[in-house]
From TrEMBL:
Keywords: Oxidoreductase. Transmembrane segments: none annotated. One of its GO terms (molecular function) is oxidoreductase activity. This is Short-chain dehydrogenase/reductase-like protein. It comes from the Eukaryota. InterPro entries: NAD(P)-bd_dom_sf, SDR_fam. The lineage of its organism: Eukaryota, Fungi, Dikarya, Ascomycota, Pezizomycotina. It holds the Pfam family adh_short.
Length: 345
């Protein structure tokens, strides 16, 4: 964990950075946004529609809320985008597998995978699929989705001569966790419904950044002959935003956070700009933390010697878990791309 003054300064710098309205065209592209029915995911989806994506998949656990989001987007922007609502519940591995299989069979290409859906709870949230619910949602299912969709994205790169992007939504909060579970022999099993819950969400976001970095490195290593991964992988921090994320926090009286969000928070639409900035960032953002639109260092822990060791441990454990859920899925990382990458979509 970094010193409070350094953390506060870092937060303020990122929070006050201007976030330009995205302008990159997504004409011809297919985009998936998870958690697209509300908050930043919804606003990101609206931007992708405005920017001309050919096909936009709103991945939502409630198709009713997804359909409402679709209707809202269609009535608020002029777009020819084909918007579809597909069910995806990250608390269910069956749902994740079904979603990814559908994408494999129905999508000809996948240019952007915006892994936005997440939950935050500082009261016991219970378990989902044998793991603490925030860990299942924010980390395990998030990367199960990424790994299952890698072959489609690699094919997209080769067939359409483009550079698809996986953007995982991280958080400034990853600076602020002590991550006590790293001292346990099995990190993922150390997360229980009780324990360091005040830090749990922040720890899941730290895990996301560690795993994103290792994934980027492994993709590069797997495509050594082509020089670099055909897919850009990065993590985006949207800064503190007004959304439903803190619904459970405010209920139990975290007034400081409420006031901070009221005074300094981006709107969800502004936060979504940071997500699109990362998704459009290209090669220079590969394996990087894109902090409110700008490549920046992740936390000192991530960059430390210990952080690198923990990154590999987390990765190895996660691959074991994911192969237990979907046998052989970890091999999707090493599977060679069909041909070298070229320009971005
Ligand atoms: N708001 C901030 O200040 C802030 C700061 C840094 C990072 N972030 C990150 O930004 C991303 C978006 O958050 P937000 O602020 O927009 O929060 P939000 O308004 O709570 O939206 C979260 C989205 O994730 C979906 N979701 C939650 N659990 C899910 C599950 N099990 N399966 C499928 N979808 C699920 C939600 O669906 P339901 O509507 O069905 O619940 C909702 O669509 C998250 O990754 C968050 O960690 C936010």
């Amino acid at each position: 964990m970094i010193k409070p003054i350094t953390a506060a300064w870092h937060f303020l710098q990122a929070q006050l950075r201007p976030l330009p309205v995205p302008t990159k065209s997504y004409a011809g592209c297919t985009v998936i946004v998870t958690g697209a029915n509300g908050g930043l995911g919804f606003e990101a989806a609206r931007h992708f529609a405005r920017l001309g994506a050919a096909r936009l998949i709103l991945a939502c656990r409630s198709t009713e809320r997804g359909e409402a989001a679709k209707a809202d987007i269609e009535s608020s922007v002029t777009t020819s985008t084909a918007i579809e609502v597909w069910p995806l519940d990250l608390c269910s591995f069956d749902s994740v597998r079904a979603f990814c299989r559908r994408a494999e069979s129905e999508l000809e290409r996948l240019d952007v995978l915006l892994e936005n859906a997440a939950m935050l709870s500082i009261t016991p949230a219970g378990m989902a699929e044998g793991y603490e619910m925030q860990v299942t949602t924010n980390v395990i299912s998030t990367f199960l989705t990424v790994l299952m969709l890698l072959p489609l994205m690699k094919r997209t790169a080769a067939k359409f001569n483009v550079e698809p992007a996986v953007t995982v939504v991280g958080s400034e909060g990853h600076f602020w966790t002590r991550f006590v579970e790293k001292n346990q022999p099995r990190i993922f099993e150390a997360f229980r419904p009780g324990g360091a819950l005040q830090e749990r969400y922040m720890t899941t976001k730290l895990l996301d950044i560690l795993i994103m970095r290792e994934l980027a490195a492994q993709l590069d290593a797997a495509s050594a002959s082509a020089g670099a991964s055909p897919i850009v992988v990065n993590a985006a921090n949207p800064g503190l935003c007004k959304s439903s994320l803190f619904r459970n926090v405010f209920l139990i009286g975290q007034f400081f956070l409420a006031i901070l969000t009221f005074v300094l928070g981006h709107t969800s639409e502004q936060g979504a700009r940071a997500l699109l900035a990362a998704a459009a960032g290209g090669r220079e953002t590969h394996g990087k933390y894109v902090d409110c639109g700008k490549v920046d260092d992740p936390s000192p822990f991530v960059l430390s010697k210990e952080g690198k060791v923990v990154q590999k441990r987390v990765w190895d454990e996660l691959m074991e878990i994911l192969d237990g859920i979907e046998p052989g899925v970890s091999a999707n990382v090493k599977q060679a791309p069909l041909s070298a990458m070229a320009t971005s979509c």
